[in-house]
Structures are given as structure tokens and as C-alpha cells.
Design goal:
Protein name: TPM domain-containing protein
Strand content: 15-25%
Organism: Chitinophaga qingshengii
Number of strands: 5
Oligomer: single chain
Number of domains: 2
CATH architecture of the largest domain: Roll
Order of helices and strands: HHEEEEEHH
Shape: extended
Structural class: alpha+beta
Helix content: 25-40%
């Protein structure tokens, strides 16, 4: 009877250690940990609707040029003049000179190698950074890409989580999330814009 209890305790402790090991060391949580921005550093910059529309239009126009040249995010031949570019969000620096842009591309599923006939559209997404120079915004792709979602809302949620909750990692380039006021002076700007 005592041997059974001892064996049971050892098995339970072993299973507990195994779960902790996989949960924190081998990836159940370690690869997608949230680093939420502290309330004191949340970026609350707001622009007028007119400026937002003007910037969105200008950004879409620039991205459309990249799309037609198959550059950056739009390097696949699936992107063509029928691809719809959607600006999901624009995040502004407090001085309005820098922006972070969440971009979604909408394509017909017929362009996929193995299209799912249940859906008409699929969505891809990424993040761009931009610097305002006079009347133009210079753009650079910086984020990871997310592909082949059949839901615009789902890919938007994934991108927002990636940029606002898990963008900050422990390297010198991505120290802060996109919604953090400290992000606008982070080393990432030197890499992409020499600023």
C-alpha cells in the first residue's frame, strides 16, 4: 500500500514537472509570450479623420506601386492590380513624423495554389514603418507576414496582437511594442531610416 502511494506521488510530481518544462521551456508559452505595454507608456496620439484618410490614401498609393513591381511584402505573383490593399491601422508618433502601418492584402482564392472553394477571398498581412518627409511618407516593411487567412477580422486580430502585444522581444532592435511611446526613439528606426 505504501509503495503504491509513493509510486503515485512520484508519477504525479514527474508529470507536473513535465508540464512545467513544456509550458515554459519548450514553447507552449515561450515563443508567443505577451509583453503588454505598461499603461504609463501607451501611445495615445490621435489625428483628425481628414489627416488619417489623407495618409491612408497616400500609403495605399505607394503600396500599390510596390505591389505592381512585386517588391517587399508583395513579391508573390499572386499580387496584381486586382489585389485590394487595406490599411488596418495607422499608429502615429506623438510628433506625427513617424508611423506604424498594419497592412492587409485581399486576394481572390482562385490565386492560391490549393484554393478552398468555400471562400471567395483570402487575406495576407504585415507591418510597415514610415517617416514623414515634407508631403510624403517613406515606407519600409518591418513586420512578420501572416498569410492565407479566410477572415479579414481574424488576420487583423493576429496582426494587432503581434504588433501591440508581442512585437517587443529581448533584442536591441525590437524593445518596444508599436503602441509604446518609447518605440518612436527605438533602434529600429536607425536600421530602416538612419534616424
Amino acid at each position: 500500500m505504501m509503495k503504491r502511494k509513493a509510486t503515485l506521488v512520484i508519477i504525479l510530481v514527474g508529470l507536473g514537472l513535465l508540464v512545467l518544462c513544456f509550458k515554459y521551456i519548450y514553447g507552449w508559452m515561450s515563443f508567443h509570450r505577451n509583453v503588454d505595454t505598461s499603461v504609463g507608456f501607451l501611445n495615445n496620439t490621435v489625428v483628425s479623420g481628414e489627416n488619417y484618410i489623407q495618409d491612408s490614401t497616400q500609403i495605399i498609393h505607394q503600396l500599390k506601386k510596390s505591389l505592381l513591381r512585386h517588391e517587399d511584402f508583395f513579391n508573390s505573383s499572386a499580387y496584381d492590380d486586382s489585389t485590394q490593399i487595406i490599411i488596418d491601422s495607422i499608429v502615429y508618433s506623438p510628433d506625427l513624423k513617424k508611423v506604424g502601418i498594419l497592412v492587409i492584402a485581399k486576394n481572390a482564392t482562385s490565386k492560391q495554389l490549393l484554393p478552398d472553394k468555400r471562400y471567395n477571398w483570402y487575406y495576407d498581412a504585415t507591418c510597415y514603418l514610415g517617416v514623414r518627409q515634407a508631403d510624403s511618407i517613406t515606407l519600409k516593411m518591418t513586420g512578420a507576414t501572416y498569410t492565407n487567412s479566410y477572415s479579414e477580422q481574424r488576420i487583423s486580430d493576429i496582426m494587432r496582437a503581434a504588433c501591440f502585444r508581442t512585437f517587443a522581444i529581448d533584442d536591441s532592435l525590437h524593445k518596444y511594442n508599436l503602441n509604446d511611446t518609447r518605440f518612436w526613439s527605438a533602434p529600429i528606426w536607425k536600421k530602416y531610416f538612419d534616424q
